[in-house]
UniProtKB/TrEMBL annotation:
Residues spanning the membrane: 12-35, 41-63, 83-100, 106-126
Signal sequence interval, chain numbering: none
Topology versus the membrane: Multi-pass membrane protein
Superkingdom, natural source: Bacteria
GO CC annotations, alphabetized: plasma membrane
Subcellular location: Cell membrane
Protein name: ATP synthase protein I
Keyword Ribonucleoprotein listed: no
Keywords: Cell membrane, Membrane, Transmembrane, Transmembrane helix
Amino acid sequence: MKIRNKTPLHRLAVFPLLLTQLAVALLAATVGWLWKGPLAGYSTLLGGMIVLVPNLYFTYKAFRYFGARSVNAIVQSFWSGEMGKLILTAALFALVFAGVERLNVAALFVGYGLVLGTSACSLLLVKGFPKH
């Protein structure tokens, strides 16, 4: 029996991480814009969005179900969410490289790395994380 999670996105525990990723992407794009110009700014923003958009998809898929009776549906939705996230990331990279004429590749990967690093540090953002 699948129990559907009707909690809105802004009430999920992962929402602060998604907001932090958006803030890092916007901040990095602003710094890139001011430091190296508009080309670096929007390239950095595109790199950040290549991380953020698939993470939004994963969040939607992974947190659709809850409860002990839904364990099979939860595992399945996590797997499909992760596979969709990987495919979406690859498709967004392909779309950016094929569709954007002027692109600062270094800035794109800086934006990607910074926002991806925010994901890697997500345990530090979780409420109640042990602070030794």
